[in-house]
Amino acid sequence: MNALQAISAVLRKELVESVRDRKATLNTLLLGPILIPILLLGLVWFTASSQMEKVEATLEVSVVGAELAPNLIQFLRQQEVEILPPPDDPEEAVRSQTLPLVLRIPEEFSAQWAAGTPAEIELLNDSSRRESSIPVQRLEGLLHQYSRKIGTLRLQLRGVSPTATVPILVSDVDLSTPKSRGVLLFVFLPYALMITAFTGGLHHAIDSTAGEKERCSLEPLVINPIPRWQILLGKMLATACFGLLSLLLTLVTFSVVLPQIPAGALGADLTFGVAQWFRVLVVVGPVAILASSMLILLASWAKTYREAQSYVSLVILIPMIPSMMLMSNPIKAETWHMAIPMFSHNLLVAEVARGEPLSGLWWLIATMSTGVLAALFALVAIWAFSRPKMIFADTE
Amino acid sequence: MIVAKNLKKFFGAVEAVRDVTFDARDGEITGLLGPNGAGKTTTLRMLYSVLPADGGRILIDDIDPVVALQAARRRIGVVPDGRGLYPRLTARENIDFFGQLHGLSRTVRRDRIGILSKTLDMGEILDRRVDGFSQGQRVKVAIARAMIHDPQTVILDEPSNGLDVMSTRALRGYLQHLKAEGRCVVLSTHIMQEVAALCDQVVVIAGGEVAAQGSPQGLIAQSGQATLEDAFVSLIGSDEGLAA
Q1: What is the pLDDT of residues A157-214, one digit of tens each?
Q2: Mutation for testing the B interface, residue in A219, A233, A385, A394 having most B CBs under 10 Å
Q3: H or E stretch covering B216
Q4: H or E stretch including A325?
Q5: Distance in angstroms (rounded) separating the CA atoms of residues B141 and A295
Q6: What is the pLDDT of residues B61-99, one digit of tens each?
Q7: Separation between Cα atoms, residue A9 and residue A14, nearest integer Å
């Protein structure tokens, strides 16, 4: 009996057993891989489209004292701003959010205007209300435009060139490609992939260790004349299969859902070819292997399925850490980053998503460091599994 | 053939097995009889080498499991206390899986399952999932699984636990059949009638030690009591555990 036959016998049995556990298998394979991408993309799309709406919608502004500045009001009307009558209590209207903003022209405006001193107008708004920030910015922009226009006219009247007030002209040259702009969205991609690589194998890892112990089938299994490491390796491989399958399904969901999002809403070109999705899978695949050895190791310690669940639910936070770090503090990928397990795969996914070529060296370093960690967990699991305590649910 | 000499097992400060010595011969049924918690299961677990002994020596057909673990395992078939079948696999798949782990070829496995299914009368249940089987059906599958590699020695931990009368009779019949084939059968039990009806040799275990050893008739004579039950109580010095 060679080791390969034994391992594949265990692997086959694990897969058949798990597949027949329909409910649990469908839950892990469909819930995560389908719901997570749809939720994340839905969120991005919703944010983008509601912002677009506010930018494109007609700007409505309530003005107090409109009759004091007829020229300004006329200018705003020309810019397609709809001028509304003033509310009874402007402060209260903004505070209670019945109006996003109110423009108030004080009594002194006419006098200041006529004297050529800066004439004050008030823009009432609540900066803690994020939904009103877009109309406020739009109105501020228009008011500055009007102010500059009048200022320019006044300088020309006095025979001064308006360019004298513009010592520096900043010109914004955006070098991002449409695809690299889409990377904002792909902050979510590595995150979703890390999670599903773990959740995919979760049920199987617990069921085939703590679950078997609980059902008393681990004891007869280890009586068979094969070394325990072969049994454990078969179980890890089965767990990794589910992790990889879950990753694959997640990518399929992304590839189906992404094109449904109007590209204009995100200001980015999100077309991903099959080859690019395949590269993403190659990049994150090793994470599923790490996940399987980590989950098997932890679940082996538990005596019951429930106990194992409580350990493992904490581990599920681990894959989130690198993603969270990168979300809040984006960094430029460097070679030494590739030696940090998991973190490296996050960076690589982002690189691939940006449309950059995948560096073979980086991939190799990332995969090796993750592989070494996975092997380390596997060795500890094998050592633990050789202890009699790990086999029996009853500690006699 | 099993030789157990001065077996010891501690769990922390607890001495589960202090000193157990006996021989189980081929063509005989050897029963380990004792109250609950006497150390029967621990003794058997050492015999089928999932628990390392803290002292003493085991020989299975002259093979020392400490020296040649897998060779010793190939000589024995085990039905553990919990049975431990895979509920989502069919009876056939359960049995076949263990055959694969023993390195048996596809044809050998098929033939062995055919024979076992006939002797154990499993025809109807063979291709049904184990989930939902009665205790009697489960024991049959567990026995067939233990016998897939045609072992010389068979170890059963409380095999009649939870069985109804008909299943118990069928089980006894099968154990007699194994004995007639010249195999070495070792079982643990706390049921007196089972010992009287089946065993050629009884090893009475109490408090992790062998309290007495011999044929059922020999034990009755040795204790000077009228029945095996009285003999048992007098040999272990209390009626502790008999009510179970």
Answers
A1: 888 887 877 777 777 666 655 555 555 566 778 888 888 888 899 999 999 999 999 9
A2: A219
A3: helix B216-223
A4: helix A320-328
A5: 31
A6: 999 999 999 999 999 999 998 899 999 999 999 999 999
A7: 9
Tokens in use for A98?
Answer: 């019945």
d(CA A3, CA A231): 10
Q: Reduce the DSSP state of residue A264 to 3 states and report it.
A: helix
CA–CA distance, A322 with A320 (Å, rounded to integer): 6
- Give yes or no for a contact between B176 and B200, defined as CB atoms under 8 angstroms apart: no
Contact flag A226-B101 (C-beta cutoff 8 Å):
yes
End-to-end CA, chain B:
30
Provide the ipTM: 0.92
Chain B contact present for A3, CB below 8 A: no
Predicted TM-score of the model (pTM): 0.81
A55 touches chain B (CB under 8 A): no
Beta strands in B137-193 (DSSP E): 153-157, 184-189
Determine whether B18 is exposed, middle or buried from the number of CB atoms within 10 Å of its CB (0-12, 13-18, 19+).
Answer: middle
The closest alpha carbon to B234, from B217, B216, B215, B212, belongs to B212
Q: Do B50 and A388 touch (CB under 8 A)?
A: yes
Q: Which residues of A touch B50 (CB under 8 A)?
A: 219, 222-223, 388, 391
Cα(A354)–Cα(A182) distance, rounded to whole angstroms?
Answer: 7
d(CA A75, CA A93): 25
Range 91-110 of B in CB contact (< 8 A) with A: 93, 97-98, 100-103
